[in-house]
Amino acid sequence: MSTESKSMEELAEESREQEKKRFVEKCATFQREIFRTTEVKFRELAESSDNFRDVDVEFVRENPLTVRILRYLTEPILSRDKFSEYCDVGDQTLGKYEDYEDDTTPRTETAEKIIDTFEEYRNESLLPWLEIGGLGYHEYDENALIKKLQTAIAYNIATSEANTEYRNWRATKQHDAIAGELVEAGFEKVEVDGVEDLEPGEYETELNVSNEEADFAIRNYSGVLTLIEAKMSGTEINFRKRRKEMVNDYNDWTEDRSDARIVAVIGGVINTNDVETLQETGIRVFWDHQLDGLSEFVSS
Asked: CA 219 to CA 223: how far, in whole Å?
């Protein structure tokens, strides 16, 4: 059954059910992977630092993932933005150290700042042995506490970061599907500074148009410009925010380029009332689980 033969309600229900299944399966996978990785790195960090008494600069440099663990041992738990600000390290720089697939190594000076910030804001209630001065152990079993803390921190990080990993993965999946449609239709991916530089048959991604970023900017062989926004959402409330953003972008783009066609590619948990609002605004809507007609529309 093609998209055109389905009602908006049917498409929305399909999208909702697929998103629920995809989120549960994929997010759970991310959570398990992050938990295992963090547990191992926590154990190595604890062993190398005498249970966080003396975090070594070289260990942090060689194991940048430990930055995230140190963040979760602060009181309060500092977000990446806050931690970056407090230790005077750029957020994007810190993000590279916390990326599971990035092997960027902090400079010695940067690693020292990270450790200093951890030591200033560390949570003494999680690391009570650090308050005992010269004593190595107290009336409790320090190693037993470390093992429990290892599990707790790994779980907290996994539950928090798995959602971020899923959102990034889901957005990439959506963008790849759109790009696949464009390539199959004969469009060529190029790198340009502005939409004016697009030649017929070309498209660019993440292009600034009237001070707002278009996920895809395409000029077809007739010279017609199409701007695509790709939005996915796990809840109706979240999509309502995305809908407002798309309407604002539509107004900005069409004010400067009245002949541009604006497209929304959407997916996830979405209320049909918000889809109707987009359509009434003048935005052409396609669902990312059934992109039937997108390439034909862009090409026409």
From this structure: 6
